[in-house]
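Morning!

As promised:
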Amino acid sequence: MKFLDALLGRSKPKQPKLDALFGMTGAAITLEAAAGMRPTGQAAVCFKPASGQGFAAAAEELHDLLELAVKEAGSTVSVTDDRYGYRWVVLTDPEMEDLVTSAHLVNSTLEQYGFGPQLLCSVFAFSASGGQRFHLVYLYKRGTFYPFAPLGGERRDNELELRVKAILEGDLPIEPELGRWFALWGLPLG
Amino acid sequence: MARTRFPADAGLASRMVLTMFLLGLLYVVFVGVLVALKIPLILVLLIAGGFLFFQYFFSDRIALSSMRGREVTPEQAPELHQMVDRLCALADMPKPRVAVSDSDLPNAFATGRNQQHAVVCVTSGILRRLSAPELEAVLSHELSHVAHRDVAVMTIASFLGILAGFVVRSSIYAGAYGGGGGWGRSNDRDNNAGAVILLVVLASAVVYAFSFLLTRLLSRYRELSADRAGAILIGRPSLLAAALVKITGEMARIPTRDLRAAEPLNAFFLVPALAPGFSFSSLFATHPPLERRLEQLAQLEAQLGRPA
């Protein structure tokens, strides 16, 4: 089927995989138990806004739903657009479970409106024992996670990333191709 | 159930299938004629196959070196790499190599036989002229070419043309040297051999002409497919339309000398570089006319506008 699609030049928009995201709750526990790495209570969902009324309707419903969910869980939400034209829904909540639930709300709402292919990734912020920040990135299209530890000057702490990978290998599907661990410079998380 | 807002374009796919079918049919007929004329087919196939092999396996290097494109690292072109990174994650494809060509011509191309060997190259001219979102739209068009394996498809499609052109040349060559004794093994009489060679030349020329037209037609369909897939990927069809208009507008203002130097590479380009005043029939164009491309993008935009 894939061959035929290539031959006919009709690649289909890739649908996101949403289920693996719920593994985050367990992964956070493992990280804290094994290495004292704690979630900072911040997470974000990143997607590419589409043009047109269809997407505007989806965004509006998403906004309403988020507001409700956030009020219920006692967390906060903010939305920013980055310079690459992607939209970030940033969630703050001390409970990892609430973060995952809110993130999933964004996913499922977009998917419901047929904008699942617009989902890029979601990011969960952690702080290592020395206070250094790193992020666990979930790639929707692959259904895999990878760690991203930015240092100053657009460099990455590869050692920390590989350590996190080793710790989480049993809990989460880690992206096997290192080439796909792409950097997310300037992401709107603290 | 996962849904997509864009229904498949059955018309485009069926036109492409028809074109490929005609190409294949032409192939079969041509080989049949060669066999009927008792040409040592193995020899012809070997040499033509060699060309194809070379073109297929070195497409990335050939195209890059003729455009003087050089690969850039994420440190050299961080923004460009970030855009490609994200688009690849969005489309779930391996990241191609990224190259920049020092040319004032605002253009971009993708090459490489498969996703693992792909290169996406942009000119410094396009980097300077397009805004970041427009550049991203152009990149998503090029990445769609990679996803559709257009280099492989077009190389194989043009194989017949190469083959036929080769037969024409070698037949004429053989004819110039003693009536082509080497060609028709069973044709001992010179008279007969001369007629055979004439027939082969004629048949090959006709086949070449037809396969040329058909591969050009196929190329135009591939462009429309890449436009479509690219626009859907970024979810903003009008952005690609704007980039196309901008580039086409800029193209007309570039000095002629640059344009002519780039013409042989047109099949790989986002927008064909054609010297002004060079009139060409739309039959021969590697790219569909701008209006056709804009029309398709406007249609996609309309589909996005519909409420769910």
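Strands of chain A lie at 38-47, 76-81, 87-92, 119-127, 133-139, 144-148, 150-151, 155-156.

Hope this helps with the figure draft.
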